[in-house]
Amino acid sequence: MLLRHGATEWSSSGRHTGSTDVPLTDQGEQQARAAAAVLGRVLRAEPVLVATSPRQRARETARLAGLGVPVGDGGLGGGEAVVWEDLAEWDYGAYEGLTTPQIREQRGDDWRVFRDGVAPGGPGQPPGEQLDQVAARCARVLERVRGDLSGGDVVLVAHGHVLRVLAAVWLEADPAAGAQLLLDTAAVCVLDTEHGVPGVRRWNLTPDLLA
């Protein structure tokens, strides 16, 4: 299962938020708490593994959603979630903190992150990642959890773009297909298999759907 973090000031304004460690807003905290009800509907039992991005917006979402207190990279136990660097959001390089209209104005084209990637960061900026690098991280995450999937549900708490890439990798599709998998803040997704074929059972389940 996938859970995107709750709203932040940057996500609400459309700013690309990669390595910048912004907190949840009050709305984001409310969304994270409400996500617990969605998880309660789709989880078959207590998850055998909960892993989160190292960014506070993901770690706090995991905690508020009742998935445990995130700790260091290691095993799960005592109501703890593990923190995996590979679940961090896409590193946007020179585009960190900018909106899509701002980036398009700079470039003079109809830039799309899944198609065109990012510009490397300059001095004092994040280095930046291209789609194939993000997809490689997602493949490592999936390889890491495959052994746990036979024992029960796994929950991954992370960010919009990296989770969309991860879903595309799970489907054995082109990672660029993540562009078509729209994902709201605090949304839950269920990935599954049927007769050994990877698929999507639920996508973009948000707390308001339970109202």
Give the topology, please.
Blueprint: E1 2-4, H1 9-13, H2 26-42, E2 49-52, H3 56-64, E3 69-71, E4 80-83, H4 100-107, H5 113-116, H6 131-149, E5 154-158, H7 160-170, E6 188-194, E7 197-205
Parallel strand pairs: 1-5, 2-4, 2-5, 3-4
Antiparallel strand pairs: 1-6, 6-7
Helix pairs in contact: 2-3, 6-7
Give an account of the 3D structure.
By secondary structure, the protein is α/β, with parallel strands linked by helices. The chain has a single domain, classed as Phosphoglycerate mutase-like (Rossmann fold, 3-Layer(aba) Sandwich), CATH 3.40.50. Helix content is 35%, strand content 17%. The protein has a seven-stranded mixed sheet with strand order 3-4-2-5-1-6-7, with helices on both faces. A hairpin with a 2-residue loop joins strand 6 (188-194) and strand 7 (197-205). InterPro entries: His_Pase_superF_clade-1 (IPR013078), His_PPase_superfam (IPR029033), PGM_Phosphatase (IPR050275).
In short:
This protein is α/β, with parallel strands linked by helices. Helix content is 35%, strand content 17%.
List the helices and strands in order. EHHEHEEHHHEHEE
Low-confidence stretches: 74-78
Calculate the terminal CA-CA distance, rounded to whole Å.
21 Å
CATH class: Alpha Beta
In round numbers, the mean pLDDT is: 94
The fold-level CATH name is: Rossmann fold
- Overall helicity: 25-40%
- The assigned structural class equals alpha/beta
Could you say what the CATH architecture is?
Answer: 3-Layer(aba) Sandwich
Number of helices: 7
* DSSP E strands, number: 7
What is the name of the CATH superfamily?
A: Phosphoglycerate mutase-like
Biased composition (Polar residues): 9-22
Protein name: Histidine phosphatase family protein
Active site: 5 (tele-phosphohistidine intermediate), 89 (proton donor/acceptor)
Binding site for substrate: 17-18, 57, 89-92
